[in-house]
Write a structure and sequence with these properties.
The structure holds two protein chains of two kinds.
Chain A: E1 6-18, H1 25-34, E2 39-52, E3 57-62, H2 68-76, E4 83-88, E5 92-95, H3 108-119, H4 123-137, H5 152-163, E6 170-174, H6 182-197, E7 201-205, H7 209-215, E8 218-223, E9 226-232, H8 233-244
Helix pairs in contact in A: 3-4, 4-5
Chain B: H1 2-10, H2 12-26, H3 35-55, H4 63-90, H5 92-95, H6 103-130, H7 143-166, H8 170-183, H9 192-196, H10 200-204, H11 207-219, H12 226-250, H13 254-257
Classes of the chains: A alpha/beta, B mainly alpha.
């Protein structure tokens, strides 16, 4: 397998939907004793299999609750499949909820190093790229200010700058990136396009068919956890249009 | 096993960052900063010495030293486990986004509180000098209870972190348990009378009491009690084994509950 390849084989994910959410010990024991703990099984994904090669841009289409985000989380390795497996090779960069995961008490500078290390970059590497990140995020004057004093736009800008400091092999995009103001959005879109043209594998979740058509060369459709179509963007988007009417 | 070791080495730098973060943020924006770690035990010892020294009519010159040694160990255990209990929930936004070995969040808490604890030991040294408590050869063994304390705190934290994800009540329950443990750890009283009574088991099977006892043995120049040693070693190992097994078994489910 080359860097950027992804193989998803027979992946199913089961959630136990408690009839009511049991959050306290007392409740748990009382319900357990009464034999009232009943689970409703819910399959968020059912036997999904597909594989894409390095450089492919896969759009994941589907209605709300069809399992799109679950699929992404599963590929990102955050969620473990109940059956089947996901194989992927190379550095993966999740661009989901940019700016979430920062420490609010920490300054911008400290967050760069902390967030970097969570993503798997060593301190020396981050030091070498520190200027680049700050310049891209245009936050030069704010790096010693605690994150809690940042605006949400500033947070996402910092998040975006850190996540794109290196060219990842696999990029995960949940919904469209609308980072910061119009000027920065343009800049971030250019950066994204640069990465995409560089041969990064992209997984893109969106409700907007136009955006998917713009970026992706392949697509799949999920419906209630089942994959009902997978293939070239033209074929799949024709089918998707048919479904949504 | 080999996989876990490699996994750990791969993420060593993340652990370092997390430990650093804990220490840096602990006293950020406070004027006295790290001095609080020294002041808190000093003030506590003065108050406890005055109250219980008078109450028990205790004239033992070493009494403040006795209190402080127990108090320091207890407050480490208390803060480490309390942080450990919350560590998964506290880092939920990261866990939902990027895959990172989740035990690192627990381990980093136990380590950084330990570092602050070691710094606060300075107070104990100072007090020993003031009270002229002579060092003995037994002092060389002081690392034994200190290591046991760390291991027990880690093991218990792993158990609590796992349980804490599924049941929020654990935070309140553990607060109560820690208070009970405090009273049963002979921090500000001498344990002889209780040990001799039919309630002696309360102290005897309290791992924290045994570790504090070992610690005092080393400081005051007494050979370590063999039951205390065996019991606390087994408790430390036992809690780590149970904690890790439980954590590994349940960690894939964390994301569904945080």
């Amino acid at each position: 397998m080359a860097n950027g390849d992804i193989v998803v084989k027979d992946v199913s994910i089961k959630f136990n939907l408690n009839q009511e959410k049991i959050d306290s010990l007392k409740e748990y024991f009382i319900k357990k004793l009464k034999g009232q703990i009943s689970y409703k099984e819910f399959w968020a994904l059912k036997h999904v299999s597909f594989s894409i090669k390095s450089g492919d841009r896969l759009g994941i289409l589907g209605l709300n609750g069809s399992g799109k985000s679950t699929m992404l989380k599963c590929i990102a390795g955050v969620l473990k499949p109940s059956t089947g497996y996901v194989h992927r090779e190379g550095l993966l960069m999740p661009m989901i909820e940019l700016g979430a995961g920062f420490d609010m008490q920490y300054t911008g500078r400290e967050n760069v190093f902390l967030y970097g290390s969570v993503l798997g970059f060593k301190r020396d590497f981050m030091k070498a790229h520190y200027r680049e990140i700050v310049d891209f995020a245009e936050l030069n004057d704010f790096m010693d200010v605690p994150l809690k004093n940042y605006s949400s736009g500033m947070r996402s800008r910092l998040g975006f700058a850190i996540a794109t400091v290196v060219k990842p092999d696999i990029l995960i995009l949940d919904e469209v990136l609308s980072v910061g103001d119009a000027k920065f959005r343009k800049k971030s879109e250019n950066k994204m396009m640069e990465l995409i043209e560089d041969g990064t594998t992209v997984l893109f979740v969106s409700h907007s068919l136009q955006q998917v058509q713009k970026i992706c060369n392949k697509a799949l459709i999920l419906d209630h956890g089942e994959m009902i179509a997978f293939g070239d963007i033209e074929t799949v988007s024709a089918k998707y249009e048919e479904i949504i009417g | 096993m080999i996989y876990s070791v490699k996994n750990f080495i791969d993420h060593k730098f993340l652990l370092r960052e997390l430990v650093l973060k804990g220490i840096k943020l602990k006293y950020r924006r406070s004027y006295l900063g790290i001095l609080w770690s020294l002041l808190e035990p000093i003030l506590m010892t003065i108050v406890l010495t005055i109250i219980f020294g008078t109450l028990f009519g205790n004239n033992n010159k070493q009494y403040p030293f006795y209190i402080l040694s127990g108090r320091l160990l207890f407050s480490y255990f208390s803060s480490a486990t309390n942080m450990g209990l919350r560590s998964i929930r506290a880092n939920a936004s990261m866990i939902k986004k990027v895959y990172v070995p989740k035990y690192l969040y627990v381990l980093s808490n136990v380590i950084y509180t330990y570092m602050i604890f070691i710094i606060s030991m300075v107070v104990l040294l100072g007090l020993a000098a003031i009270l002229r408590i002579p060092p003995t050869w037994y002092l060389l063994l002081v690392w034994v209870p200190l290591v046991l304390l760390f291991l027990t705190a880690f093991g218990v934290s792993m158990i609590l972190a796992t349980v804490g994800v599924f049941f929020r009540d654990m935070e309140y329950l553990w607060g109560i348990i820690m208070t009970l443990i405090m009273y049963a750890s002979a921090i500000f009283y001498y344990p002889e009378k209780i040990l001799a009574s039919k309630h002696g088991w309360i102290l005897k099977y309290n791992p924290l009491y045994q570790i504090i006892d070992l610690f005092r043995d080393c400081l005051l120049g007494r050979p370590m009690d063999s039951f205390a040693l065996i019991y606390s070693v087994s408790f430390a190992i036992g809690s780590i084994v149970i904690g890790c097994l439980l954590f590994v078994k349940k960690q894939d489910k964390f994301i569904l509950y945080i």
